[in-house]
Structure formats: C-alpha cells, structure tokens
Amino acid sequence: MPLAKPIRQARNAKPDFFKECNRMAKYVYTFGAGKAEGGTKMRDLLGGKGADLAEMSSLGIPVPPGFTITTEVCTGYYENDKNYPADLEAQVDAALAATEKILGKRFGDAKNPLLFSVRSGARVSMPGMMDTVLNLGLNDETVRGLIEVTGSARLGWDSYRRFIEMFADVVRGVDRNLFEHVLQEAKDAKGVKLDTDLDAADLERLVGRYKEIYRRELGEDFAQDPKKQLWDSIGAVFGSWETPRAVTYRRLNGIPNDWGTAVNVQTMVFGNMGDDSATGVAFTRDPATGAHDYFYGEFLVNAQGEDVVAGIRTPQQISLPGSREWAEGNGVDETKRKARYPSLEEIMPVIYAELEGTRKKLEEHYRDMQDVEFTIERGRLWMLQTRRGKRTAAAAVKIAVDMVKQKLIDKEEAIMRVEPARLDDLLHPVFDPEAKQRATTVAKGLPASPGAATGQVVFTADDAEAWAGERKKVILVRLETSPEDIHGMNAAVGILTARGGMTSHAAVVARGMGKCCVAGCGDISVDYAKKCFTASGKTLKEGDWLSLDGSTGEVIQGQVATRDPELTGDFGEFMVWADELRTLGVRTNADTPKDSRVALAFGAEGIGLTRTEHMFFDPERILAMQEMILADDEKGRKAALDKLLPFQREDFIGIFTAMDGLPVTIRTLDPPLHEFLPHTESDQRDLAKAAGVPLEKIRARVTELHETNPMLGLRGCRLGIAYPEITAMQARAIFEAACECKKNGINARPEVMIPLTSSREELADQKRVVVATAEEVFSEKGIRVDYLVGTMIELPRAALTAEEVAREAQFFSFGTNDLTQTTFGLSRDDAGTFLPMYVAKGILPHDPFQVLDQEGVGILVDWATKMGRKARPDLKVGICGEHGGETRSVKFCHRVGLNYVSCSPYRVPIARLAAAQAAVEDKRK
Amino acid sequence: MPLAKPIRQARNAKPDFFKECNRMAKYVYTFGAGKAEGGTKMRDLLGGKGADLAEMSSLGIPVPPGFTITTEVCTGYYENDKNYPADLEAQVDAALAATEKILGKRFGDAKNPLLFSVRSGARVSMPGMMDTVLNLGLNDETVRGLIEVTGSARLGWDSYRRFIEMFADVVRGVDRNLFEHVLQEAKDAKGVKLDTDLDAADLERLVGRYKEIYRRELGEDFAQDPKKQLWDSIGAVFGSWETPRAVTYRRLNGIPNDWGTAVNVQTMVFGNMGDDSATGVAFTRDPATGAHDYFYGEFLVNAQGEDVVAGIRTPQQISLPGSREWAEGNGVDETKRKARYPSLEEIMPVIYAELEGTRKKLEEHYRDMQDVEFTIERGRLWMLQTRRGKRTAAAAVKIAVDMVKQKLIDKEEAIMRVEPARLDDLLHPVFDPEAKQRATTVAKGLPASPGAATGQVVFTADDAEAWAGERKKVILVRLETSPEDIHGMNAAVGILTARGGMTSHAAVVARGMGKCCVAGCGDISVDYAKKCFTASGKTLKEGDWLSLDGSTGEVIQGQVATRDPELTGDFGEFMVWADELRTLGVRTNADTPKDSRVALAFGAEGIGLTRTEHMFFDPERILAMQEMILADDEKGRKAALDKLLPFQREDFIGIFTAMDGLPVTIRTLDPPLHEFLPHTESDQRDLAKAAGVPLEKIRARVTELHETNPMLGLRGCRLGIAYPEITAMQARAIFEAACECKKNGINARPEVMIPLTSSREELADQKRVVVATAEEVFSEKGIRVDYLVGTMIELPRAALTAEEVAREAQFFSFGTNDLTQTTFGLSRDDAGTFLPMYVAKGILPHDPFQVLDQEGVGILVDWATKMGRKARPDLKVGICGEHGGETRSVKFCHRVGLNYVSCSPYRVPIARLAAAQAAVEDKRK
C-alpha cells in the first residue's frame, strides 16, 4: 500500500480540511449483524450507499457485513497529493478484523477466504459513473479455498476470472475487450453462446489466459496479495472520482467536485451459486408510473449483480402480476413466461415474502420510494443496497400524492419531493394520436423513459453530440449504452437500445435526464459498421428520421406530429397544494392570445411580458414598420405609425380579453430598428418597390442604422426617447384597446413597461408620453381604465439607481437575460465560443443564461428590489427573463422578496412548484 | 404688469420651493449709499452681480443705488406657469421708493427722471448669455427732463435711441439690425463713421425713425409707461434664462437649470456725458498672465459700457505703463499713443487714484482677482460691478502663487483657485520656434487667449460645428463674435476676430473655454460673402490652413509644427504644493518608453496601464500575431508567439528602464483577435502570401472570429483562458525583461494586470499561468523580481463579486471606460446616435465617458473598493480609464479611497491638482 503521509504536514492542504480532521479522526465505519457505526444521517460523510447500508443493518435488514471509508478521506486524498491520513491503515485493519469476526472467516485465508466488493458511494447517486471491484481477495490459493467451501469449482473459477478482468480494467487500466475477446473465443470454440454454458474447466483455462494477458499488458504478474489488492482497489475508487466521465456527470448534474466519494468494502455474497441463487434490482414503487399495486423489480437466477445492470440477459420480474404484465407487453405467452421468465414470487415464495417485508420496512422507514439491490445466495436473502429511487416526473408526482394519502408524508414534504424542472417531462408534447395511427411502428421495446421524441438516427455518442451541435435533433441508437455514452445521450432527444432492461444503464440514465428512451428493443438489428439498423424488414440509415414513444416503447419510422399534453388527476391535485403553499406569484411571457390561453391553462396569474415588436414582423405590418423607419421626419413616421395602430390595438384587445381581470404587462418597442429592415440586396429591392422609395435610400438607412455592438446601441427606451411618436402610438393602441374591452365588460389591466432604462430621467421622459396619451384616449372615449407604468430593470445602472428609478416606476420587472449580458459583459450571441469551455473548466458553475447568477447578477436584483421599495414601499417587483422558469432562480426570486416571476407558458407549472418549494424551505429554516 | 398669482396655489409647484417661500418671503434686496440688505454670502439668492453690488455698497465703494430681485423668484416664475409671487410688486415698489429717496429723483419724473438699468445676474457669471436693458424709464417726456438736467440734448436723444433699440430687441424680440441699418444710413447720409459724430438733432430724428420701426414691427406704439417698461424688462430677463443660447451655455458649463437668475435694477449712470465721462472694464490683475505690476484695464471716453464690451471702438488703457506696453505691442508710437490713446492715469489722475484705491480695497476684501466695470459720470466714479475675474490658466497659477507670497491666501486656498482642467492650457504644445520662424505671419492681433492652434479656416459658427463634426480642425474667423456663435467657438480649435479688445466677447469666451484666440486683428479684411479674408495682400479662403498664436497675437499662414511646453517657475512651485497636499497617487497610461518619459516629466509616479496589444500592430510584429491567430493548434500558436517574445521583452525593458524603481502595470492581451486580421480582400491576399496560408483559410478565420457584439465577446482574459500560451508568452516577456533589468541595476516593478475579469475563477486561472511562468523564468535566470498580479475591474460582475476577486488579486484597477459601457449598456462606438440628444434633453447631466457617472458606475467603484479591501486590507486600488484625468472623477476617486489614478501623460498635472483639491475639500469638511 502507498506510504501514509501525516495529513497535517501535507502541503497545500486547505485549512478547513485540517480542522475537520482534528475534530474527527475516525475514517472507517463498520456495519453488519444488525448493527452499524453509521446511519442515514451521515450521508455526507459515508456517501449514500454506505449510509444506507449502515441504516439497513441497524434496521435488522440482512446486509453483508463490511465497512465504509469516508468521503473525507477522498477529499483529503486529492488535497494532499494523493496520500492517505496516517492512521487510515490501522483503522481499516480494525474494521477488517471486525468483519472477519462476524462471519468467522479471514481475508486471504486459503481455506475459507473472505471476499470483498469494493465500491464507490458519493453523497448522491452517480449510477455507473465510478468503478467497482468484485470478488476481491481471490488469488491462486484462495480460489481453491472458495471452491472447497462452496463446493462449486465453476463459481470459484468464474469469480476469479471476473475478478482478474475487473481488477485489470478498473485498477490497472487494461482494456477490458482483451479479456472479452478471449472469453468469446472460448465460447466460439465450444460452440456455445452464454457464459453459463462454460464449465469449470473452461473457466480455469480462461483464468490462465487472463493472467497471461495481465502479465503481457502490465509486465508483471497478477497481484496475489489480498491486502495489496484491497489498497489498490481503494485507490482506484478514489481515482475514479476524477475520471473524465465522472467529472462530466457531476458537471451535468451540478455536483460539487469537492464532495468526494466514500469507499464501501463489503463482504461478497454470490448470486451465482446455482439455481437457488439469484441477484436482482427492485423499486418499492414503479419508477416509471409511481404505481405500487405490485412489487416492481427484476432478477436473474444464478447471476452476479452486474449481469442485471449491464442488461445483457433479459431479466425476470419479481412479482407475479408484474411478470404477467411484462409478458403481455412483450407478447410473451403465459406458457413461455412461466417456463422461461417465471417470477421470483413463483419460484422462491419464501424469499419473495421476505423481500416484500423488507420493501415495506424500507418504505415505512425512509418514507420514500427506494431502489434496492439484493442477492440470494443459496436460498438466503442479502440486501446489498438501498437508495432513494430515481423516477420519472409522472411517478414522482404520483408517489408524492399517494404517500400523502397513505399519511406517510405531509403536503409540504410531497411538494419537496418533485424536482420542478422534471415537470417539463409532463408538459412536453406527446404524439398526436391520429398522426401516430398513420405512422408505421417498426419495432417495440421497453418504455424505459416516457415522452415522445422525433429525430435523425445516429449510432455513436460522438455523432450525436456533433449533429446536435449543428442544431439537429437526433435519436441515439445503440446496442446498449455505457457510461462513455453520456455526452451523446445528453445531446440526443431520444435513446433507443437493442438490449437491456428497465434498469439498464440506458434506462436509468435516460430517466435521470428526463429524456425519452426505448430500451431492450430486441426487434432491431444494429450494424455499427454500416451505420444502419433493420426492423420489420426496413432499413434505417444514419440521418433517417425516427420517432420514439418512451411511454409505450414504440419505435416509429419517420417524423410524427406531436400534441400538447393533458394534465389532470394527481398532477392537478399536486399543483393545487403547491399553489396553497407558495407566496410568489407566477405570470407568463406571452405575445398572443393563444399563448395567453395556454399559460392560463397552466396556471399563470397574469402576463409579465408581452413583446410588442414580435407583432410587427407579421407580413401585413412589417411594411408599415419599414416605412416608419425610412421616413424623413416625424410627420412621415406618424403616418406610418397610424397604419400600425389598428393592428396593435387588435393585438391588445385579444390579449386583454384572454386575460380578463388579470394584469398584462406590455413592453414598448425594444429591438434596434435595423432588425426590421432587409439586409440582402433582393429584399431591399422588394422593399424599395413596395414602399416606393429609392433603393439607395434603403441602403443608406441600413448603413446609418448599422451598429458595432447592437446590444449596446439605439434600442429600448432610447428609441422611444428619440422617436416619442412610437411610444405614443403604442400607448394609444394599449389604452384604446383597454377602453374598448371595458365597453364590452372585459376588465383590462394594462401595465406599460419601458425597456432598457438606465436612469430615472429616461423613464420619466417615456412615462410623460404614456400618461399624456392615456389622458388623451380616456377623454376621447369618456372611459377611464386603471393602469400602471413601470420599467424593465435590465441594465446594471438601472439596478444601481433603483431608488431613483422607483420614484417614477410603479413596478420593476427584471430582464435578467440582458442584465446577465451586461453584468458579465457577455453577449449571448457570441458567448458560444467560450461559455461551454468556461463551464467545462469549472470557471462558471453553469451557463448564467440558464441559471441566474446569484453571486453577481443576483446582488443587483436584491439591491434594486430593496432600494426600489425604499423609495416606493408598494413597488411591484417581478422577473421576466428566461430564469423565471428555472427552479434555482425562482427560489432565489422568492428569497429576495419578488412579487412574481414570469416565464414561458410551458414553464409556468415549474415556476409554481419551485415557488412552493421556496416557501417550504423558508418555513423550515 | 402680469397679474400676480399667489405662488402657493400654483399647480405643479415643487414642494421644496414652497417650503423655501414660506421661510423666506423677502424677494427684493436694496443697496446703495454705503449700505445694503444683501452681501457676497447671499450669492445663491442674489446672483453674483447682485451679491457683489451689495457687498461693494457695504464696503463704502460708490455704487449706483438699486435693488435685486432674487433668483428664487426666477425659479418660482418657471415652476408656476410664469407667474410672480403675490407680494413681489409691493416689494419692488418699496425698493423703488428707497432708491428714489437716496438720489432725490423719481422714476418717471418728467423733470428729473430716475433711469434704471435692468440686468440679469446668475450665481455664476454667464457672460453675454442673458439680456440687459439700459436707460429704462425714458419716454417722450422724460427724455426732455433728462436733457434739461444733464444739459446735453445729445446724451438725452442718444440714450433714448439706445433704449428703444434695446427694449425692442431684448424685451420684444425685434431684429436689432433694423435699427442698426437706420443708424448706418444716418451716418452715411452725413458722411461720418462714428456714432459720436452724430449730433443731438440727428439722434432725435433717429428716435423718431426707431419708434416708427417699433410700431411697424409690433403693431403698437413704443411703451411710454416707465412701470410697464420696468416689468416688461424684468420679465425679459427672467425669460432670457431659458433662451437656447443660455441653455447651451449652461450645458457646456455644467450649470443646473434650476439655479435661475436674479434681476438687478440699478440706477443708470452715464459715461457718455462728455469728455469728463467715461466707462471702462478693469481687472485687478492681468487676466492673461496674472501680472500685477500695473493696473490692467480699458476704458472709452464719452461712452456707455456696452461700447467697451462690444469691441467696436478700440479702447484705451487705464494705467500709463499698461498704455505704453499696449502701444509697443501694437506698433503705436508714443506721440500717437498720447494723442489718440492716452491712459486714464494721464487724463483723469484723481479718478485713476480713486480707482486704484478701489482695486486694492477689492483685492484685500475678496482676496482674489476681480473683474470690475466702472463708469465716470462728469468726473465722478461709479463702480457698476465687481466679480471674480476670469483668467487664463497661466494667470490663475501665477495669481494663486503670488497671493500666497503676498500672504493674501494660504497654499491650500491657492490650490483651490485653479480649475485643474485648465492646466490643459499650459500643457498643450506651443509652436516649434524654428518652424514658426520659417512661417509667414500675415497679421497681428490681440493675444486674447493663449495657446497655439492650427486649423482650416471657416467663417460661420455653423460651418465650424459641421467641419469639426467631420473631425476637421477649424479656425473660426469672424469680424467679431456674439453669443450666437458659442457653438462654433466650442467646435473650433482657435478663434480670430477682426474687431474687439481683450474684453470683447470673443476674448472673454475663448479664455473661459481655454481656447486659443487672437482678437481685434484690424490687419485682416473679412469677406463673409466670398468666404475669404485678406491680410498682408494674401487671400485665405475657406478651408485654407491657418495658425494662431494666442499668446502673441500672431496670425500665421499655413500649418506650423508644435512643440511640448516647458513647465517651470510658478507652475512648478504650484504643483509642488499640490503634491504636498494630495494623498491620492497619480500614475500614467503609457505604452512606450517615450510616453513614459513624458509622463515622468509631468510628475507621474508609475504606470497604471500599459496596453500590450498596441505593440503588436507594429508592421514587423503584426505578421507573427496573425500567424498565431491562423495557427491550427497550440503548437502552431506557440511557434508564432515565440517570434513575438523578443519584441515584447524589448518593449518591457524599455519601459522598465524609463520607470526605474516605479511600478509598471502591464495588461495582458485585451482586444478580440479579429482586430488583428485584415478585413479587405487585398489585405487578406497580402497576408495569405506573407504567412503562406491559403486565402480561403484567412477568410474562414475572419468569419469564424466575427462577433455580433465584439465588446461583449471573446476578449480580455477570455482570450488568455482559451489560449493560455498567449498569457504565458506575455508573462515570460515581462519577467525576462525584469530579470534583464535587474542584472543591469535597474529596478523593474512589474504589476501584471488581467483584463475583463468577471469572476474570481477567471483571475485564478490566469494568475496560475503568470505565477508558473514567473517561477520558470526566475529559476532559468537565477534572479527573482518582486511583482504583483491583479486585475482590471471593468465589468459590473467583477465589481459586485470584488470580495471574492480580491482573494486572488493583489491590486484592482478600475477600467471605467468599459465599466461605463456595461453599466449603462451603452457602446461608445454607437452611442453617438443618441448620447448628444440625451445630454441636450437633460436625461444625462454629461457624457458619462467624459465625466465618471458617480450615481451609477460610482456605486460599483465604491462597493468594489470596500469589498475588495474587506477580503484583502492592503489591496492596491487604482483607476486607469479616461476618467483618471478628469477633475470631478479624480475627486471622486479620492473620496472613495483609491490609492491612485492613472491617466494619459498630458493629464497627469490635472490629476495631481484635482487630487490636491480633493484632499483640501476633505479637510475643510
């Protein structure tokens, strides 16, 4: 083992770490035999797996004994030039001794060897991300002891073969395929297909050949000393924390690099000791739907755990009803099912009952759906792991609602159980049933992760990423996926695999990503070399269109139209609870009556942003807009604006009518004028003809309006200040529409919002125009309508001078898109060249255009809110940037005391839930 | 008079104003006969002129009695729909009565009429900006009383004529030229040149014709009621506060619109009652040089005050030495001088002595150079005005230094007496003497405002503005200037007038602007119609090059080379005092050893900003830079960078050597890479050939590097993070240069500055590269050099997260140019389309790129300084934006507690003085 170096003398160690070490010199926690030194509450220190193993052990659930090396050791290991604390070795030795005592076996004992698994275990689950070594402790001597004790030469040699392969791969970095190739050769030579068709002698020969590969690749013999095996493996687990795929996973999932992983050293139990042995994975409720009418899980007889996860053999179902449903879904008749895929309930009813009891115990204890791994060794059940089960959004909602009804949790806890962003999964369109009826289903696989996806076929993760980079939607098609494919899965809109079950890598990861996935689709035949697959006699090549229904498992040729989802039942009930709890308002960004109605259906309480300029791009209107821009003087501009007025008025009548009684925030013209002029020669010619002006004039105006940095140019309120007649026209359209609505019994509540303000004076200038126009219209119509005038806060200076600005503004709405651009000095249009690099290098924790930068931009939001309210205590404050529908950002808005967030219609439920969670978090504090 | 409306009932009145009114219901303050109700301390309320008239009266200086209507009335007038407070009329009547009592005359008395002047008087002098009415009270009856009392029919009719013209022009808006035309006709008819050649009968006839013009133009008879004349004139003065030219002047001079003007109603005295009468203007010290060896001033016998100011007649000098010097300078021999231009000292020695006594009294009282107006009426001296005299920068410095030596003021006060920006006048280049010797002087005028200017001739203020808008340097040539020419004078680099004295409009305004001016140059003959002038037989047309020496009065044909000014004597002494007082450091922005040396000579204490990219634009280097940008990989980039290394090293050796022992802040590469690539087809071809790469590749790279908003793109530290090898090369050049210097006994103190940081992590990344490179170089050379690594704070986020950033930064330097851009969301390149409008509309008080925006950007500077020091108490904080050489901004930097400001070499003295003033202001608080 590596020389232990006193951690306190290590250079560059963080002071905090030392402090922690001084306080807490215990690095190793044992568990087993109904006892444990740790427990669930020590998750940060022991990792999820270690904490839960300890917890299970304390609960009296049968757990193979072992011990956990803390995450603190991992952190310290990286901070101290990959050295361990001085007394770690002694603590491990003590834990080993304790484990040996429980089982009455000794590690390295040639007669009756104790074998270990060595696994990683971080605070949060990172499935498949880090390395595991099984059957540790085997060597040329102990393998014979194992054979003697178990009476199974096959198991002995198979275990040793697996151990050599794993150790070589995981600990020493030898290419696993070298071993797999030899294994395949052995099977081919014997004319068999399955590993299980190899006998003890075959496997013993393989061990010999594996050791040869090991020697050839590494220039040394396979390590025979069990203690060296152990320490090398511990080092490998710690080392796996920093592999590129682990780093990528953490980045994608927002897991801090300094959390570290624990190492769990646990006694091996064998699911491959014959037909009275098995290994399986189960969920206490259905992770796809949340149902708990039967026990949901899969197992393989005479197998080791990784056989299930790897998805190489098709697993059997745990419960009888589950098995029947699976058979029905896969077109397997009852006779074949009973023969080839019987349930655990049928073949091992006692074990099944014990497992069912454990399931109940765990749910009652954890009051959450659990994901468990178990092994049955010669008729004895061992629980290897329990953890919070990943689930689809629909399942998350259903489980939360059901558990409230079961009185396992209260409504507040239920609200906290669903990650708001996951609601996206429920809100995404599904296939249009009619379109789908017309479509050709070419195959059917497992409905591994719900949702509908349409994209072009690619066959490698790298291609998926590259095509997605060109803004193509892709479906990643693989025989099976592995952790190396993560970036491609992330880039794809859907994933289709030929092999693997509902707990295969592809299924678990896709659900985690909330991404549509059809797994284990044996109907398809994939040819990586030719980049195509065949199904139902049809061949689909790279680039062909494919559609996946992740909720049914259907694989459909071509593109299929989608339809908006319907939200009822559990979801509706759940959202009502969220609304009861939240204090933050939720509005929507909508520019049309249609958008407004969608948002209302999703629970929006008003419009936080209507962008009036979008209305001008309509073909009937753009010409008038262009005439306005080309006009020589105010008179010409007014004439053109007069043409736009009736259009704008109609737009607003439509929106006011849709939002009857709810506030509607309307932003005056924002984008630079050059955006409305054509830039190609031919378009300019067309405009010249249509507008009756010389081409030269259009060219000249385009040149004149050109800006070096349009983001920082003549736009926003600067336009309205330069051309007050534009603001006046828009204000007139708003107030005429509002008066018209009032006449028809509709309650229009306009809030006029001036964009890109940087000072009180700008707002005062535009407010004068708006107020004067309102008074004009009211006196013309003989009707008055209540309205507000406020401003976007989207420039740092507006935020910094908020106290002054609020003397004019009746409301603020943070435009955090632009505010992020100016605060960072970062153009969204240009940041693509370096922002991904920044996130990859850890210079930024995430893209600040996706997640509000609380440390920087957030200070401005907080300051402006406080200062604005200082000047005007009843100032209404909201946010209308993209961040208004992002969970962490919404929670921040709640904490800062905003009145509302506003987001796109489909994100309204996310914002409602995030707001409710923020309120609960507040209460709990 | 207009109906007085109770001010408290007026709508829209500001609450503050009412409060003020409640407290202070006195609107009229009398002065005269050795007493006064006001004084200098009431300048805000009485305006400068009114306060000083009251002060003089209290000092026993003979002042024609009268009264002042306060500035508060003006402010209220505009805030209350141009209505006066209710009791103003009664207060004016009382003051009239008091004035009548002092003189024993009555206003409107047909026998012995009291006449008044009505003049504006704001808090600060706004020369020629607002209107004045003289001889008020004259009508068809009182003119005869005046003739009887004075015994001078000529004076009576001349005064009445002038009054009608002024009243018609100023109060009623009739074109003055209509009257001047008739006057000219009368002179032509009589065959005379001067007004004084007209006799009483001529003038009486003119009065008749003037009244006809009045009737024709206005459709009514000339107002005969003196009280109506008075109230109309008071209204006109208040009205003149808002004329476009007054608004322009205030904008140019940063005078708030709400200060308002007072109205001074003062008894008329007549300098035109014959040869024992005169009128004049004097300065207690020479306003051009600051000399006080004789009494500097001009007068005209038998004239009214405006004759002097208007510069139509060439005035005589007050003192004999002054007169002799004037004669010498103008080539007038002693005989001619005595005959035609005798001094006041010679022709009225008693009055001269009284005036000299008054001069001393005023200087002792005000302890500052005064600008006085006086009138001698039939042998009796009356002082009409005293005010702080405007002066050239050289005079300001000399007067301040002299007054300290005379123990009139202390050093601190001396420092406060010079507006730092005015030092520019002393620092601007003068003509190269040799170049000037070769040049052809075509005329000589009065050295009205010092400095040297070379530009193209234009003849109208509008042309001056238009040409300057095209970045041309222009000399404005006029017969004489008037307030309507202000915008053209502002646009011109120099002003030449054919007429007028040292106190003419052109001279006074040019000195105020610190702009080179040659006035009263009778040698030239101007033809506006043909847009040319002749001098010494040469004709110069519009667009021809002309040079002016404002210190000698020389008018030179063509362009003349200029040379750096030498600063010694008073200036040196004065700046030493400034340095003794100031606590803020002053560095310079310099990219070359030459700039560094200039700045050192101006007193720079280090370099605050060296822009390394400027070095790359050198023709020998740009190719290597371009090769670097075109390289396919890091290896290619490194090869190109290796070529740049020796150049950069030599640059730094040069700068370190120049700044031996002083800190040198070096900024790593900042601009976007596309700035270094050619954008025209032919340049791209040249580069393709030179760099040996296909043209297509260059085009592709240019396209790839194109940015929508380059200001917010891949630049600053983002470049160094994307291409660490660039930072490494620059760091290597810096440290190799520093080591080389140390070997040669030169103390190099590099401070490496990372630009465009927005987070601690960015700085940490670049700091790692710099520190690693430094260690490499030190170990290669076996020499260590002390250095700092810090960052620009030029993005709002860097300022907001300053506490974190300071954990990595050893210094901050505010890049307020970029910080202003991002805080305002305003591109300097594009703001030209609306920023002038913003300043004109009063939406911004001034261009925030010229004067630091303390309310917005300043909050960030203040916050970042405090937060940065919180994390690192010894953090060095400076500023290196353009604002580092602007007075108000420098004072702000002092108040915020910065360690230093850094500015361009020529602005270093300005920064030193501004810093000293800030320290004094601090002490005085």
Descriptive keywords:
homodimer, 925 residues, alpha/beta, eight-stranded mixed β-sheet, eight-stranded parallel β-barrel, 34 strands, 17% strand, elongated, disordered N terminus
Characterize the structure shown.
The structure is a homodimer of 925-residue chains. Chain A has an eight-stranded mixed beta sheet with strand order 15-25-24-17-18-19-20-16. Chain A is elongated, with a radius of gyration of 32 Å. Chain A has 38 helices and 34 strands. Chain A is 47% helix and 17% strand. In chain A, α22 links the parallel β19 (494-497) and β20 (516-519). Chains A and B meet through α29, α31, α32, α34 and α36 of A and α29, α31, α32, α34 and α36 of B.
At a glance:
Chain A has 925 residues and is α/β, with parallel strands linked by helices.
Which SSEs are present, and which pair or pack?
Two copies of one chain form a homodimer.
Chain A: H1 15-23, E1 28-32, E2 35-36, H2 43-58, E3 66-69, H3 71-79, H4 88-103, E4 106-107, E5 113-114, E6 116-122, E7 132-136, H5 142-150, H6 153-171, H7 176-190, H8 200-218, H9 226-240, H10 244-253, E8 261-267, E9 278-283, E10 296-301, H11 305-310, E11 316-317, H12 320-329, H13 334-340, H14 344-347, H15 349-366, E12 370-377, E13 380-388, H16 393-405, H17 411-416, H18 423-427, E14 430-431, H19 433-438, E15 440-444, E16 446-449, E17 452-458, H20 461-469, E18 474-478, H21 486-491, E19 494-497, H22 505-513, E20 516-519, E21 525-527, E22 532-535, E23 538-541, E24 545-549, E25 554-557, E26 562-563, H23 570-581, E27 585-589, H24 593-601, E28 607-611, H25 619-630, H26 634-658, E29 663-667, H27 681-691, H28 695-705, H29 717-722, H30 724-743, E30 749-754, H31 760-781, E31 788-793, H32 796-800, H33 802-808, E32 811-814, H34 816-824, H35 835-840, H36 857-871, E33 876-879, H37 887-896, E34 900-903, H38 908-924
Parallel strand pairs in A: 4-5, 17-18, 18-19, 19-20, 27-28, 27-34, 28-29, 29-30, 30-31, 31-32, 32-33, 33-34
Antiparallel strand pairs in A: 1-2, 1-3, 3-8, 6-7, 6-8, 9-10, 9-12, 10-11, 12-13, 14-26, 15-25, 16-20, 17-24, 21-22, 22-23, 24-25
Helix pairs in contact in A: 5-6, 6-8, 7-8, 16-23, 23-38, 24-26, 25-26, 26-30, 27-28, 30-31, 31-33, 33-36, 37-38
